[in-house]
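Hi R.,

Here's the chain you asked about this morning:
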Amino acid sequence: MSELFDAVDALLASRAKLPLPAERKRLRAAHGLTIDEVATALKVRRATVSGWESGKTEPRPPERDAYARLLDKLAELYPAEATAPIQDAAESATFTTAPAPAKAQTLSTGQAPDAADMTVTENIQAPASAPVAAAPAAAPHPAHTTRPTSSTSRRPSAKKTAAAPAPAGEIDPRFENGPLAVVDVEGGKVLAYCVGGLVLEVPAKSLPSLVDWTLKEAKLGQPKLSGPGKPADPLIVLTEPALERYGLPVALTEEERHAGRIPEGHKVVKQLARAQWKLTKRGFGPWARIYRPAQGSERACVQLCIPSWNALDTRHWGPAGQLPPAELARVLGAYASRVMTPRGSTAVTGLELMTALHPPTYAVRDEETGLLRQADDKTPGSLGKDPVDPAPCEAPDGHPVLKDLPRFHVRGPGEKLFEEAYDWARPMTDEECLRRNLVGLDVNMAFAAGANGLNVGLGEATHVTNPAFDAKLPGSWLVDLSHVDMSKVKAGKEWVELDGSLLPSPFTPKGERPEGPAWYATPTVAYAVELGYEVRPIEAWVRYENGRYLDGWYNRLRDAYLATMADLGVDAGLAPADFLAAMDGYKARDPELAIVTMAIKATVKGGLGKLRERPRGEGWRPGEPWRALSRPTWRPDIRAAVISRTRINLHRKIIKHAAFTGQYPVAILSDCVVYAVNGESPLDFLPYREGKPLPGGFKLGINPGLVKHEGTQSVLWGEEVRDRFNAPELNLARYIKDGTVTDVDNGE
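And here is the predicted structure, written out as tokens:
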């Protein structure tokens, strides 16, 4: 009889109902689970779970029943706005092919699909009170003509029309006018330029009333990025005429610029205080946040951006701050819809994006009071809400964990983890001097690619002595790698002999061979093993609680970059020659979208840099804590691991290329590598065969980790520059793009 019951149970399990693939992915992401975690729990391969979420395959018993149980539980925690379509076993039999990829579309400046807010002073919104719908594709929305009686709307005759609406999910009525508005004054009227070409008339006479209008009538903001997260607050950008209208200075004085804010005694700051609005600790500066403490799940917070106060740094936003209001709304709206609503500089936004995708905690309902409160435990896969101290070797000079060191003590490699990007160059050989050109290759979004799939620590470090090295365990390892000889290494599964004198060491930023034990992040030590050499760590600081924290961050930024480059005519699937042709002058095709690509790349580097933010004045002294240390996202170990992996990824390609072609780099700077060759184009020396690149080597393309042409200069140019400055090892990668050298290379 038990066998019959087992057979019946098997039949029921084989017909377990499952949501459609997109909903499966949403439910997993809402709980902060990675594909690897689900695969491990169900005892299947990672690719199997990926296939279930893409619709390429369907789960079969016995995994199907367990998978359905997981999804049912997650659906209870994170219900969708509308019940996701259910797919039964009969339907799944025909669901065997992945849906065709969407065709690249013109930039959408309409309602953004999602974003997040991380104001730590406010309560968390319960998942049940703001259900999460499956994220639709970003699409513009038509202008709405119904407005409160105090404001009207109109569409200006802009030189660029908004893109035609694309099919998308229902727009959240709370944010139907998009994530942001650029407020300007024309003909005595205050106008708010929104995404999609929509313009609203603003009745507000003062800044406090502008904040009120934004929250009550403007319908600005973005839905949250993840299940436990919060919606993004509306962003208001103030032009110079708007600053004058609301009593603010058009430019900061030198003293205010250094302080990063206007004085607390300014009349506008007093107006806000009288209206019971508060400012964050950074005060009223280029990126001011104005809020009232949250009441339950009700939020009251507006972000201001003031371009004329240098809110949009030209290094990262180019000429965005000088654009007319409609064009600026288009640029910032594109960035907001594809990355997130800016929360400050690109560096701040990059860091906030990490937290928005993995909120530190979530809301639960108190059984006694019935009110919402923060859960006692952290969100799975997040860094939590409390900061953790770095290991002593990971701490930068002056950190409190090093306060007992002598004041002028200089830590060497055996005391300090020093994982940085490459800055290496060498004199050219006689043979290389006879070649015609120097050609630079640049790795697309190299540091984002280094973060992809990287296992990083999520909690505190544990000290161990004489450990066996584990490449899957993130941490810092004290180990001697001086025995690794670059003249004979493994490239893949085969040993190859190379000219080690022409190669940088993969273990130091300057490419110098280590002289003894030093601290390295896990990816660096793992690469020594990959090259065929034994490693014996002396001690280590490892993190047993770990996960792929940056995967969602990478995916978001990668998709933003690829979508924007596709709008500029550079698609991911182009053949090598077509790719180089498409990259030629791509910025001129749409200068505004080119600004967005610049900002996306700055978000990657800046966000990673913020993981190890140093003191910014404020009377700080060595040994004392500084403000950034109070963040759970102050994690120098994660930054070190990403940089380590990025440097190793590049070195691996260099080894593959040298083993196959006999060509060696003459200079490397971060993600740019320069070769002396006879041609002018990367296609003249990259070993493509029938359109296919060398496996594991350099491949032309726009995806993160692939390479593009950085620039070509003559060998004579390089030698002349080095002679002029009497610097035989001047890093030519720094100047290969346009050939302009203004001073001696000082590494800055």
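One quick note: Residues 82-169, 744-748 have pLDDT under 50 and may be disordered.

Cheers,
M.
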